[in-house]
Structure formats: C-alpha cells, structure tokens
Amino acid sequence: GVPGGRPTVQASLAGGYLKATRSETLLGEGTVLTVDMALRPTGTVEGTVTEAVGSTPALAVVSVRAGGVGGGNFAGPTNQSGEFEFERVAAGQASISADELGSIDQADATIDVPAGGTVQVPLRLNGVGSLRGIARASGGAPTAGWLWVHGSGPYGYTRGLNLGPNGVFAFPELMAGPFTLTLRTLSGGISLYGSATGTIAPDQETVLDVQLEPSGTVTGVVMRPGGASPAFGADVTLTHAKGTATAHAQPDGRFTFKGVPLGPITARIHDPITTGRATVRGRTVASNQEIVDVG
Fold first, then answer.
1. CB 180 within 8 A of CB 150
2. Which strands form 291-293's sheet, in the order they lie side by side?
3. Distance separating alpha carbons of residues 84 and 116, to the nearest angstrom
4. Which pTM does this prediction carry?
5. CA dist., res. 230 & res. 161, Å (int)
6. Residues 6+ away with beta carbon under 8 Å from 115
C-alpha cells in the first residue's frame, strides 16, 4: 500500500535514540522494497572523577549528553574509586559533567565518542573554598550594607547578603576562581560603593575585607532672617551626582550629612516657618573624611 516514489524510512530505539533515516526508490505497484537500516553508531565513555587537589577519587553523579539526531542522555554515580562507564553512547560530539555528592563542586568537558571504540575521560573537579571578611566604612569602621560576591571563574555565580552593623560576612562554599566583592550603603538617598577582588583557592579559606569609597561630611547652620535665631526644623536638601539626601535643622540650626562621596555638592534650604529659601553651590568634598562646612 505504499505509493511509488522515494519513501523515507526511519528506525530507532525507544524514545528516538540512535535514530537513522534512509530514502530508497520504490519502482512501481506490486514491487517489494527492502531497506536495511544502520542505526547511529555508538561507543563507550569511561573515566575517573578526582578532587581538585591531588588524586583523591570523588563520589559524584556523572552525566553524558550526546547531541544531534538520535542522541540521548545518560547519568549515573561513580564507584568508590571515582570511576564511571557508559556503554552504547551515540557516537560523535558529546558533553560530560560531574556533580560531587554533598558539595557544590563540579566539572565538565566536551568529548568525541568514537564509533565502536572507547574514550577515556579524566574529570578533575573545579574545587571549592570559603570566604569571610568585614565590610568597612570609608573611615575603616565596620558598617552595615548590602554585599555581593560575583565569581568570574569557569562556573560563574552571584551571592548576596544583607549585613548587620558589625559588617561581618561569610560564604562557607564558593567555587574556586577569581571573584569580586561589591559593597553598597545608602546614606539618606546617596549611595556609597566599595569593591575588592581576590581568588578562592580549593580547600582554602580566603579572608578579605571590603571598604567603601572615600567620603566626607557636609554640615552647616541655618539662621532665620537677621541672624537672631536658628531656623529649627528647616528642610535641607543635599544634591550629589550619586543621589539626593534630606535633613532637618536641629534646635541650634545645624544640619549634618555623613557619608557624602567625593565630588561637587549643592545644598538647598527651605524654612517652612518664614518660607525663606537659600541655595549653596560651588562646594566640593575633596578628600576622605573631610568635613565641609557650608556655613
């Protein structure tokens, strides 16, 4: 019941594994066409997973993914010697990975599975270490804030913490490789940042503090017309390229902004009692821990 022409025949194992396709010419009515099919060839993948340092075998789950038409996935644990073996893996390029049991450590590689042959794959785990330190303000004292660690090694990652006033942070498990710490605090509406870089070594603890960028303090006194009395409660807005912060004049008329990044500032003052206004321009925080009195 197959019409003449070039029918396409497909054959595979369950789930389309080792799928093969072939087209042949069917000459006419009543003829019988015999099509012999060769499934996609296979090979064997075997090897050993070891720890990042030394030659200690690792207990891990190994996964193999053979791509392309007729490809498929395999997964299984290593034995006590860290060894693994997968038979009848579709020949051609494949990816292989190992995930260590009870750890975040891993390894991966790209392999070529030979048709009718065996490929030996040694997999060395990347390695895992730890990181701790203290977040510090511009002057060196511990500070609260938001902290992120960004790993830029073979296995990138980002982790974040909301730090308390003591600034202490710890990451018990991070993939080995280079990393960057980024610290941010908010003073009013003005952000301060700090960063530090380092490298996580396998099975080692890295200790590294991160400090905010240089900053200073802006202060001043607001007096009502005639200078006879302080403008208690006056609104003060400080503008910087990195944000805007607000404060109120205290009973003695003084206002203070701490943690102001280096750079030009503008202070705008409004007294709701007298509706008076004033603006101070052209002032700059020029050095770390500098106190700028705008008058």
1. yes
2. 254-261, 215-221, 291-293
3. 18
4. 0.82
5. 42
6. 41, 42, 43, 91
For the chain, the C-alpha Rg in angstroms (whole number) is 34
Per-residue tens of pLDDT for the chain, all 295 residues: 555 556 676 777 888 888 878 766 656 665 665 666 788 999 999 999 999 999 999 999 999 999 998 999 999 999 999 999 999 999 999 999 999 999 999 999 999 999 999 999 999 999 999 999 999 999 999 999 999 999 999 999 999 999 999 999 999 999 999 999 999 999 888 999 999 999 999 999 999 999 999 999 999 999 998 888 999 999 999 999 999 999 999 999 999 999 999 999 999 999 999 999 999 999 999 999 999 999 8
Q: Is 28 within 8 Å of 54 (Cβ atoms)?
A: no
Task: Please count the CA atoms within 13 angstroms of the CA of 207 that sit on its side-chain side.
Answer: 0
Count, residues in the chain: 295
